[in-house]
Amino acid sequence: MFANLIESDSHTREFKRRSSFFLATTAAYVLILFAAGIASIYAYDARLEAQTNGLEVLNWIPPVTPPVRPDRPEQIHRAPASTNNGRISPQPVRPILYDDPSNPIKAPDQISAAPNPIPPAPPNTKLGNYVGDPITPPTSSTDCVTCTGTRRNPVIKIENDTPPAMPPPPKPKTETVTSRVLVSKAISLPQPPYPTMARQIRAQGSVNVQILVDEQGKVISAQAVSGHPLLTSTAREAALRARFTPTFLNGQAVKVQGVITYNFVLQ
If you classify domain 174-264 with CATH, what class do you get? Predict the structure, then answer.
């Protein structure tokens, strides 16, 4: 029994020695880590100066300017209106002072579909409880002396003594005549030359050319309507050189349309 007591007492001392060593080692490691943390804080260089110098403005936001408040609208002075309107006074009097809506300089303050019973205020109008206007001499029989409100200007009709312009005369029609009548009016009727190519292939026959003659007797257009293709060109050129006497219808020169026939015969 005593031997066991002695043995347990030796284990207690061993445990105390080990715990003291463990505590001392832990305290030493804590001090070393704490000292290393303090040293790393002092040794770290944050380079604040380099960060300050390296700032770059990416977006420029302009300063916000306060909105400009619009001017206060002109107040309309109102006075108690009365039913005693239409007075004659040496100076215009109105219960409400407002400008004529037709004034292009000042726009109306209010818009309403109902008519205003109070007429607009002319210049030199004073505020009162009735509507009054001075007497204005009439300028014509249509003006009213005792009427209130703005006086309408008399309507002046300007009569033009110049008679209306006469309508232009109708354009003359184109008259169609026969070939015999057209040839009888000819002043100059050149004959077309015989084309060499047509002579070589022995092409012959008649060529009909439709022409349009103006009021002076000049051919203004010519178009071959029938004939050999090698003969139509010279026939058309000859028809354009033709001249005719003017044709009159009811005393007015008219255009004439007809057909000239050219006969091409080999000899």
Answer: alpha beta
